Each structure stands twice: as C-alpha cells, then as structure tokens.
Amino acid sequence: MIEILEQPRQIFGGLRLAANKAQSLRTPLRSAPLPERLIVPLSQHIGEPAETLVQVGDKVLKGQPIARSLNYISAPVHAPTSGTVTDIGEYAVPHPSGLKATCVVIHADGADRSADTGLKMDDVFCADPADIRQRVREAGIVGLGGAGFPTAVKLNPGRPVELLVINAAECEPYISCDEALMCERTAEVIDGVRIMRHALQAQQVVIGVEDNMPRAVDCLRRGLEAAGERDIRLLAVPTVYPAGGEKQLIYALTGKEIPSQGLPADLGMVCHNVGTAAAVARALLQGEPLISRIVTITGAGVSQPCNLEVRIGTPIADVIASCGGYTEQAAHLLMGGPMMGIPLPNDRMPVIKTSNCLLAASVEEIPPPPAALPCIRCARCTEVCPAYLLPQQLFWYARSRDFDKVQDYNLFDCIECGCCARVCPSHIPLVQYYRFAKTEIWDLERQRTKADLARQRHEFRVERLEREKKALEERRAAAKKGLAARPKSGDAEAKKAEIAAALARVKGKKTQPATVSAMRGSADSEQGPGSDTGSDSR
Amino acid sequence: MLTAIIALGTLAAVFGLLLGYSAIRFRVEGDPIVERIDALLPQTQCGQCGFAGCRPYAEAIAGGEADINQCPPGGDAGIQALAELLGVEPKPLNAEHGEHTELRLAVIDEQTCIGCTLCIQACPVDAILGAAKQMHTVIASECTGCDLCVAPCPVDCIHMLAPGQVIATWKWPYPGSEQRLTAGDSA
C-alpha cells in the first residue's frame, strides 16, 4: 500500500528560482487566431515517426488523421484545421539540432470544419480500459509536460497500478500553461483524471501542484467538490525547482524513491501530466484528437505575455504576432523554460505537441554565459542535484570521453534540469557535457548493433559461398563420372558418323540463298552465342 | 612411508580425475580471445588489414601474426580498445593499410547502372540488391562502407557518400566545439 503523505516533503537539492509566472497569467486564456498555413511535423513524440496518410492536393478536415503510427511507441498526427495539403517535405522543426524533418503543410480554408473522428465514448467510465487506451492512441495523445512520450503506452504499464500521480507542479520559471489550464478548464482536467484512473484501474489518485499557485489549488478543490469526487487527493508540494520532475514529485508526495534507471511503474505508480489528462478528456468526451495545446508565450521580449490555445503546426512567428509581437528587448527565443528550454534559431518553426512555452527573453533574463573556468571541486553542484548524482564526476568523465565511467556514475539518471550548471562558480556548461555523453553513448550502441548485423551477414555469406562451392564441385564430380561411364567401344565409327552429320548441317546452311543469309546474318550471329550457352549448360 | 605413498597417490588420482572431467565438462569451444577481439573490430569486412574480413584479422592478432594497428575503419579508438584488451601499448594506425575516414555509404546511381551484378558479388555483407540486367540498389542500413563494390563497377556508378544527418541519430556537439546557447549556459 502506497501512503500519500499528509505533509508533502521537499525534494532533495534543487533551487529556489524567481517564478516569473505572473506576467503571463494576467490575461485570461484565449485561442490563437487560425493561421493561414500550418506546418505539422510527423515526429512530435518519442518513438518512431508517423507515416503519412495524405498526399499533396488532398482536402483534409479538422481532426482527420494525416499520419498513422505503425509502431507501439509512436503516435498518429491529425489535421489541426480543415484545408488543403500543399506540401509534404522537409521543414525546420523545433529541435536542438536545427535539422529539418518531414512535415505536412496544410493551407487552412478558414471554415475549420471537423471530421467525425469516432473517438467519442458515451459511457467512458464503464468502458473497457483497453478500448480507452486504443482511443487515446488513435487521438495521438502524448505527454504534454515536455517529453512527448505516447500516453497510451503509459496507460498500459503491464502491472497493477496502485497510485496515479497527476503532475501539475509546473516547476520551471516562466511556464504557466498548466496553471492556466487548471484555472480555466477545471472540469476538463478532473474528467481527464477520472478517465485515466479508470483506464489504469488505479486505487488512489493524487494531483501534485506547487504551493505557489493558490488559485489553481482553489479552482481544483472547488471543481472536485462540484464533481462530488472525494477520492482524488490534491496536495501542494513545496516550491523548489525541479519539483515537477517525475521522480522528484513522487518523492515529494509519497516519500518513495524510484530506483536508478527504474520507472514509477516498478513501485506500482504511474505519473501523467495534467495537460495530458485534459487532452484525454477532450478526445474521449468531445471526440477531438490532440490538435491544439496551451502554450505560454512570455518573456521581456514579447509585448503581451499570455497563455494561448494554439493549433499544432502554427508557425511560432504567428503565435508571437498574436501576442502583440516582439519588444525591442527580445534577444533569445526558446521553446520551453529558461532552465531546460531549447534555443530556436528563428521563428519560422511550428508549435508542436511538446511546446509548452515560447520564451522571448531579453539579455537581462538570459545573460550571455561567461567563459568557462576549470572545475575547482567545490561540490556545489552535488548539493543541488535533485537526482543524487555527482555532477563534477560526470563532467570529469564526459569531458575525457570515458563513456564507461560516466555510466558508472549513473549519467542516465540525470534529468538535465540544469541546477548544477546554474550554481557552478566556474560557469562550466555541465548539462552540455551530459547531453554530449548521452548521445555519444547512444551512437556507440547503434554502431555496435550495426556491427553485429554486419558480422552475422558476413558469416552467412561466407557459409553460403562455401556451400555453393561444394555443390558445384559435387556437380562436376558427377558429370565427370557420367562422362567416364560412356561406352568407349566402337567409338571410331560413331564419331565419324557424328562428324559427318555436323558437316552436313554446316553445308546445308551455306547452300542457302546468299541474299537470305545476308539478311539473316545479324540474326544468326545473335542466335549463335545463345545456342552455344544452351549447349554449355547441358 | 606406505601411508604417505597411498595418500599422495590417491590425491593424485582424485585430482587427475577431477581435471580430466573438467576438461570435458567445461571445454571451451574456439578461442575466446578471438571472439573478444572480433567484438571490438568494426565488422566493416573491408579487408584493408590484409585479411579476408574482420574475423580472420582477429585470429591473426590472437595468433601474433598481425599488429593491432591495421584497421583503418576502427581508427584510433579501435586501436585503443584493442590495446586495452590485449594489455599492450597503443600505436598509431599503420598508414600502409589506409587512413581513417568517417563512415560513408555506397550509393548506386540507378540511372547509370547496367545490372552487371559485379558489385553484388563483391559486397561482403550482401547489402546490394539486384539481378542480372536489372537495376541494383544498396540497402543503406546494411552497408558497412567497405568500398569493395566501387572498384568492380564497370561504369563507375557507385559513389561513397556521407550519410545525411537526421534528428533520430543526431549527436550533441562536444561543448566548446560549437557556439550554442543551451539550458546549461542560459541558466
């Protein structure tokens, strides 16, 4: 039995950062205007990219699937509005690499006509959990907290779930999309949580929020009362960044620690983001797949910071424009918050399923990093690491490319929260080193898999050639035997007859009319080698 | 005296039987060091080392017939790993066998291909698909970049090209090697 603490704990390590959430919460949540052109990437989630179902020139309706998922860990993609597919090609997407990825471009017709998605369920609370999962999968719902892991997979942990944790902590500064959602769409959130509880057959549910969002707590409490829901606990955890990390939030709420490289499911728990819960409710109760999300647009670089409901695929420039555009202070553009966000080289990229925040920051908000100095082993990074790691050791081994050692120090438990780099007095870009090491290790693994395949194929080829050689030798031996077995007696007579017959054939050919032979000359020469090879093969 | 002889004789017999049994029961098939060397080789099967593939080279290293610095695709990292495994000093790559280059994959210009099947016969990992007088193509995921198909092609339609970067296999650069604002910096 997992016990939910009466008094949530404070997580280990972490930082107290200025929240900077108020500026984007001043205005109520509204919908961004429909853009003219939407760029919808096929891979907006963890796992295999989806496969297109449409062609250039096709007319699509809002909510119609435009790409399907062929693998278990993947998610389909839907048309965010009605319109015409004008291109399927490579476009820049928000990713730290700055590389392009396959996108479907839709020109909106402005009518915003919906397709019948068939996702709606009338009696969702009595439905078979497998049916709910299937529809969540078809709705293309992925974790909206930022990671983008397919939700249907996380609704099927393969073991009994005792506790469903709803992550509403939203710990990173500037980001307020979950708070806006909880305040303005309370009923949808609660419906989503109840559907998830039913799908997981979870015995207990707890919603974890940070204690610096009293309005959201208030709204949820009233919403739960209105719904007559007594079994969903609501707890406010102490505000420390990164209390919204999955393992950190579970510790704060239950006092339990997820083992290294383990999953909450190992302890009978599953954690879902609050926005994901709302998306599930929207899909199953209103039949709308994941075609929009709430995005916080904030920072000193934007005129009117706010929260907007944005269609997936809307170019970031259009979103910024509907917030009054940039101010003169705008220096950086990030997708995500100041701690974990990824810098974007331009604003032509689209909003995707995992875009929780667009931060147009000023130079004061994100000052340029001072030059890195040598590590002085002060261990301040160790004090703030919420994953109980030794960041200075990880740095040491990542820097020297000792990838075995860096894994011995549990590199893959690092959540890349950036606390260590923030406190580092030497301004070492620690997280960059960890990300470098992680992707290098993944690359080595891929190379190893490829080498194993090459070895297998080469061995098979050697074996096949050996087999073919042996078979050829056997055939030759058999042919030789056959030749030797031919009767040799009276061969002189037989040979003479054979030669005579051959001569007669040649003569017969030569005596044919000259014109015909001239006309057929080319044909004969073509036939010649053919008949030769025929006799050879015999 | 007799007791001592009997005791020692019995002991010798017991250990003899034990060792004899172990030799059969725990018999090691093949040479494990060859397997371990082979596991470190890149399996390009290019033959640049002077042997007919990675395994023969591994056997030659194990037998002391070849040096550890004859594998250009493995590069310095491969030599380092072999040196660690064998407990010898790493040495620079032997230039006689070629130089280390980034992985490049064979691409057949399908407009020019005449379907002669020579490249299919040359490919050490059966990564080229095609038939006589039919267009050939390379299965990119199985190509090891060994270059062996390039020389036999009578119409020079095979090119070795660096694979394009895709998001799925993209790697973060080594910090400092590229000016880039990241979370760590921005904080």
Q: What can you see in these coordinates?
A:
The complex is a heterodimer of chains A (538) and B (187). By secondary structure, chain A is an alpha/beta fold. Chain A has helices at residues 22-25, 129-138, 151-154, 177-184, 186-200, 214-226, 246-254, 274-286, 316-321, 380-384, 391-399, 403-408, 419-423, 430-485, 491-510, 514-537; strands at 30-31, 37-41, 51-52, 59-60, 65-68, 77-78, 83-92, 100-108, 163-168, 204-210, 232-237, 269-273, 292-298, 306-311, 332-335, 342-343, 357-361. In chain A, the strands form four sheets. Chain A has a six-stranded mixed β-sheet. In chain A, strands 2-8-7-4 form a four-stranded antiparallel β-sheet, with no helix packed on it. The termini of chain A are far apart. Residues 514-538 of chain A have low confidence and may be disordered. By secondary structure, chain B is mainly alpha-helical. Helix content of chain B is 34%, strand content 6%. Chain B is built from six helices and four strands, in the order ααααβαβββα. In chain B, strands 1-4 form a two-stranded antiparallel sheet. A two-stranded antiparallel ribbon of chain B has the order 2-3. The longest helix of chain B has 24 residues, at 2-25. The N and C termini of chain B lie far apart (84 Å). The chains are: A alpha/beta (538), B mainly alpha (187). At the A-B interface, β16, α13 and α14 of A face α6 of B.
What is the topology?
The complex is a heterodimer of chains A (538) and B (187).
Chain A: H1 22-25, E1 30-31, E2 37-41, E3 51-52, E4 59-60, E5 65-68, E6 77-78, E7 83-92, E8 100-108, H2 129-138, H3 151-154, E9 163-168, H4 177-184, H5 186-200, E10 204-210, H6 214-226, E11 232-237, H7 246-254, E12 269-273, H8 274-286, E13 292-298, E14 306-311, H9 316-321, E15 332-335, E16 342-343, E17 357-361, H10 380-384, H11 391-399, H12 403-408, H13 419-423, H14 430-485, H15 491-510, H16 514-537
Parallel strand pairs in A: 1-14, 9-10, 9-12, 10-11, 13-17
Antiparallel strand pairs in A: 2-8, 3-5, 4-7, 5-6, 7-8, 13-14, 15-16, 15-17
Helix pairs in contact in A: 2-5, 4-6, 5-8, 11-14
Chain B: H1 2-25, H2 32-40, H3 54-62, H4 75-86, E1 105-108, H5 118-122, E2 128-129, E3 137-138, E4 158-161, H6 183-186
Antiparallel strand pairs in B: 1-4, 2-3
Helix pairs in contact in B: 2-3
